[in-house]
Amino acid sequence: MAVAGLKGKRQRVKEAAGALSMSKGGNMQKLGELALQKGERVPVELLALTYGSLVRQVIADYESIEEVNKQLDLMGYNIGVRLADDFFAKSGVSDCRSFQDSAEIVAKVGFKMYLNVQASVDLWNADNTAYSILFDENPLAEFTELPEEYAQLSFSNLVCGVIRGALEMLLLVVKCEFVRSTLQGNEMNEIRISLVEMLRESAPEDDED
Amino acid sequence: MKTDKAARLFRIPHGTREGSVGMEINPALAITKPDSSITEPCKLTPIEAPQVACVAVIGERNSQLFLKIYLDALVDLPYHQSQGPEVKMEEVLYSTLDIFDDYIDGSSRKTIYLGRMATVASIRLYGLLTVTNLKLIVGVRSITESDAYMKNMLIKIYRLTVKSLLNPFQPIDLMIHSRKLETGIEELVGEFPNHKPVSGPNK
């Protein structure tokens, strides 16, 4: 394994990317599977029906589809900020602070552990500030078929909120949205995650007056 | 290709239904005498007609959830001049609901396979009544399919219907709009031995 500190960041990412299938990615995959095994299972019908019911209620409460999408994201955000700690407690992943590391962790470990979904990371942009998570099955939308009037609805937007909230706990402020979804006729689901800013840990305020 | 020997235009359907409780045939289904206003539909001969005539799912309160009629299979179904054969087929389907009702009496029961409920012209109607009073009906022309096959087919349709009802956007007790259900039933019907739709389903 390369000695991380001595090489440039770009070089490090390239090596990491190259080693993905060999060690790092495979390692992440295993962690995901182990964490999934340890966790409790829930029947997919219960999850899908609960989520579907939630979405329908949000639609009933808000007028525009955009507003619905926003609310789903907000709900997800509230879940994500809490889920981050649960994730680190259960998955065994060591602390992750770089945006690049977060990609594999979210896709390989997070998705596997919480959704039992096999996801992959791809489509990095030129300066490594954005990537896509690709997956074909989505248990939240297992039985869902979108009627025409809700074609603009991002049904599983909650997931985007969860990712946004969880990454923010790692001081990574990101923008997260579905760009493709199987519900809207595409063959794969794609969530695009772009880095907005990295927060600095602020020193605690002096208690002394 | 096997022909239905008894496929005459004005056949009177008689009562024995294999594999089901002995019940009287619903008199509404019997065609008793030639009526001058009845015309012969479709140009296909009985030999060429596709085997599956219709698939229907009817809800607890007798609302229509799913209906697919294969027009070309209604070859020798007599119908009144003012309607079309598909309307007659729908009428026939609805008249079988009485047969289902006999099993709905408030007592607890499992899903019941009713077997061959009725025969009209050369179309036999097989039914399945679920615990939740969902009624599934398949009409076929064939005389060779076993009860076990029909029961299996109805159960598969039931499973597909259940999946489509799990769609959160599907209102309960209203017509089911589901591409997955339609494709699923198309496939099932396509697998039916000797079913060869000529011009595709009507509805």
From TrEMBL, chain A:
Keyword tags: Endoplasmic reticulum, ER-Golgi transport, Golgi apparatus, Transport
One matching Pfam family: TRAPP
Localization of this protein: Endoplasmic reticulum; Golgi apparatus, cis-Golgi network
Matching CDD domains: TRAPPC3_bet3 (cd14942)
InterPro entries linked: Bet3, NO_sig/Golgi_transp_ligand-bd, TRAPP_component
Any single biological process term in GO: macroautophagy
GO CC entries: endoplasmic reticulum; Golgi apparatus; TRAPP complex
Gene3D superfamilies, sorted: Trafficking protein particle complex subunit 3 (3.30.1380.20)
Alphabetized SUPFAM superfamilies for the sequence: Ligand-binding domain in the NO signalling and Golgi transport
Protein family per UniProt: Belongs to the TRAPP small subunits family. BET3 subfamily.
Function: May play a role in vesicular transport from endoplasmic reticulum to Golgi.
Subunit field text: Homodimer.
Name this polypeptide is given: Trafficking protein particle complex subunit
The organism of origin for this protein: Porphyridium purpureum (Red alga)
TrEMBL record, chain B:
One GO BP annotation of this record: endoplasmic reticulum to Golgi vesicle-mediated transport
InterPro entries xref list: Longin-like_dom_sf, Sedlin
Pfam annotation, one family: Sedlin_N
SUPFAM superfamilies for this protein: SNARE-like (SSF64356)
Protein name: Trafficking protein particle complex subunit 2-like protein
One GO CC term, this protein: cytoplasm
